[in-house]
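User: Sequence recovery, please. Input:
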């Protein structure tokens, strides 16, 4: 864990908030900001733009879990949630909502640092996986458009697939564009003309 994290702690109870702050102070020179009320939670977290959000909740309901996780933008930053009790299925719901660490049995000072480390590592791992998935989806979509454009050229010019791709590629190079962009333009134009 970095020694200089910006941390937002969502905790209603002042004594528990002080306990968390004391625990965090022992692990580094962190910038800790406590939010004690749920009103305006999303805005306040967004304004602080922390490296991680720690939530301490006694016994969350499914609605509360959804609201808190949405408010903390778990896809933008790691979120570690400490709960005293949890119903069946809430752990799964929390993880699916993007919570990086869902810790049942409350908050103990000696557990905070390793849990923050794990939450940050897990968040970065999932962030990388999401980026790779998006890149793969984009590449697949581009491939489909290129295939459609090749089909249009093959039919219109009576050429083979390799020639159609070579024509797309040459056009892209001549225009300083990506093959996928040229293919998209061709598919769009063909759609307008048909």
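Assistant: Recovered sequence (194 residues):
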């Amino acid at each position: 864990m970095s020694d200089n994290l910006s941390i937002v702690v969502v905790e209603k109870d002042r004594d528990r908030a002080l306990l968390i702050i004391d625990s965090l102070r022992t692990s580094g020179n962190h910038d800790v900001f406590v939010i004690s009320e749920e009103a305006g939670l999303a805005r306040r977290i967004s304004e602080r733009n922390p490296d991680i959000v720690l939530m301490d909740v006694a016994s969350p309901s499914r609605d509360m879990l959804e609201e808190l996780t949405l408010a903390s933008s778990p896809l933008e930053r790691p979120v570690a949630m400490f709960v005293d009790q949890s119903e069946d299925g809430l752990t799964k719901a929390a993880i699916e909502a993007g919570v990086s660490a869902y810790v049942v049995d409350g908050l103990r000072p000696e557990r905070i640092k390793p849990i923050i480390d794990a939450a940050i590592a897990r968040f970065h791992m999932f962030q990388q996986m999401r980026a790779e998935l998006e890149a793969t989806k984009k590449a697949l979509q581009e491939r489909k458009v290129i295939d459609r454009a090749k089909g249009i050229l093959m039919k219109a010019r009576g050429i083979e697939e390799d020639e159609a791709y070579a024509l797309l590629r040459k056009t892209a190079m001549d225009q300083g564009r990506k093959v996928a962009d040229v293919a998209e333009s061709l598919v769009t134009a063909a759609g307008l003309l048909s």
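Strands lie at 6-10, 31-35, 52-57, 79-83, 101-104.
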